[in-house]
Design goal:
Helix content: 25-40%
Number of helices: 2
Low-confidence stretches: none
Order of helices and strands: HEEHE
Strand order of the largest sheet: 1-2-3
C-alpha cells in the first residue's frame, strides 16, 4: 500500500543522498497534504532536511543541484515534489 511505497521511497532517498555524506538527514512524507491535486498520484511529496559538509561554501541553488543530482531518477517517478532544507554543519 501507500505506506510501504513511502517507506521504500524514503529508503531510496537515504541511499541516494549517502553520496553527500550527510551528518543528519530527515525525510518527511507530505503526500497526504497534496492528495487529489494534479501530479500527486504520479509520485509523492517529500520534505528533506539535510546537513552535510558538502554544502559548505555553496549557495542554495548549488546545494539543491547537488541534491537533485544525487536523487536523480527518483524525481522522474517516485517523487513528484521535493522540499529541501540543506545546511552545512556550521549553520546548525
Amino acid at each position: 500500500g501507500a505506506a510501504r511505497v513511502s517507506a521504500e521511497t524514503a529508503t531510496l532517498l537515504r541511499e541516494r543522498l549517502a553520496v553527500l555524506e550527510p551528518q543528519s538527514l530527515a525525510i518527511e512524507d507530505e503526500s497526504h497534504r497534496h492528495a487529489g491535486h494534479a501530479g500527486a498520484r504520479d509520485g509523492g511529496h517529500y520534505k528533506i532536511t539535510i546537513v552535510a559538509a558538502a554544502f559548505a561554501g555553496h549557495n542554495t541553488v548549488k546545494r539543491h543541484r547537488l541534491i537533485h543530482e544525487a536523487v536523480g531518477d527518483l524525481m522522474r517517478g517516485r517523487i513528484h515534489a521535493l522540499s529541501i532544507g540543506a545546511f552545512s554543519p556550521d549553520e546548525v
